[in-house]
Write a structure and sequence with these properties.
Length: about 200
């Protein structure tokens, strides 16, 4: 594929590693972070779409993602979601606006379990409670909801569709689905704010 090589593996992160170039050198630490994140393959059609949408920089990194993502096909009736722009999880960028999205969605999903143990506050700071619910959501998907392809890694990545592989919906998609199902009125207001850029 010219100067880019597609990497794959088992998680919900995606990336394209560029060929070495004297004008685009990365530090060893940066390369380690890069390689750790390259876990999900991108098909040729998806790569072409991302390039045409200018979501890939000259370094081959997903440069920006839309906050509202249309799902085609829909995920269990959900036709769009509030997306994260960068990854959220242990040792990830944890941009406060993305962490707030995850925390708000977690808080909207009311269950007997969450009422017992409590949920994270919407602070924008990645904390133990937020990390716990990300892992718990992925574990539920894999062991109780029949999505056996899900990788339980505690990372919420920007979704590129409903699922990143067969039987593996993106964590952010499921968080949106649970929030919408549990609290449709609050979720609708949340989507409106995200659409207006006022989260």
């Amino acid at each position: 594929m010219g100067g880019n090589e597609i990497h794959g593996g088992g998680g919900e992160t995606a990336g394209i590693a560029p060929k070495s170039d004297s004008s685009e050198r990365r530090t060893r630490a940066g390369t380690r972070r890069w390689r750790r994140g390259l876990q999900e393959p991108i098909g040729a059609g998806e790569l072409s779409r991302l390039r045409s949408a200018k979501w890939i920089t000259s370094l081959g990194i997903l440069a920006c993602m839309p906050r509202i993502l249309t799902l085609n096909p829909p995920f269990q009736g959900l036709s769009s979601i509030v997306n994260v722009v960068t990854r959220v999880g242990p040792t990830e960028p944890n941009d406060p606006s993305d962490v707030k999205v995850v925390q708000a969605l977690i808080r909207m999903h009311t269950s007997a379990f969450s009422k017992k143990v409590g949920v994270p506050q919407v602070t924008g700071n990645y904390d133990a409670a937020t990390g716990f619910y990300i892992y718990d959501t992925q574990y539920f998907l894999k062991t109780k909801a029949g999505h056996h392809g899900v990788v339980v890694d505690g990372i919420v990545s920007p979704a590129l569709g409903g699922s990143y592989s067969a039987g593996a919906p993106w964590t952010i998609v499921l968080l949106n689905f649970q929030a919408q199902k549990s609290n449709p009125t609050e979720y609708a207001a949340f989507v409106s704010k995200a659409s207006a850029g006022t989260l």
